[in-house]
Amino acid sequence: QVQVVESGGGLMQPGGSVRLSCVASGIIFSDYVMGWYRQAPGKERELVAHIASDGVTYYADSVKGRFIISRDNTEKTVLLQMNDLRPEDTALYYCNGASIRRWVQGTRVTLPWGQGTQVTVSS
Residue 62: which pLDDT band, with cuts at 50, 70 and 90? Predict the structure, then answer.
């Protein structure tokens, strides 16, 4: 079955750190650019960071220098190390992937959304 499962979120204090984990199954993991997304109440889902199979990364300006994305192609896992947390980081965090090989209707095939993991940053 094709799916992703996120975990690791929780209630954190400003300035704290947490590591999120996403495990994918049912795919050739190395064929996917993997990314972390987040959605806060009343806001659209936004891209936080993504990482290609060769390790090339991208970060949103809001998290650059604070978050680190990594992946293990053997374990089919993508991690998001979140440091120096701020209240504005509070959101439901999701992971997903975009295939570098499969296309449908002119767009890359993506994975089903998981349930996400909640990160709440509050004092």
Answer: very high
